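BUG: 3D viewer hangs when loading the predicted structure for this chain

Environment: internal workstation, default settings.
Expected: structure renders.
Actual: progress bar stalls at 90%.

Input used:
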Amino acid sequence: MANLCPVCGFDLGFPPWQDDSPSDEICPCCLIQFGYDDAAGGDLKQRSKIYDLWREKWRKEGMKWRGASHPPQGWDGIAQLRKAGIA
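Structure tokens produced before the viewer hung:
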């Protein structure tokens, strides 16, 4: 779970945050940038709210792959959320 995007559940291959240090990377699926879009002044509850709002927006937009690269073969946003325990 440490390498999953907290918004969409995509396996990033790296942790979005390590303690108080963001990866500064962008999730290729939902396009959140860790340390920028979720910079909540160190407030973990506020960061969690940001993830919830970001996820809701992503869902309302059809849970589409938003990155410039193509999604992995067989990619399914709903299955991804379920596998991550977010759906």
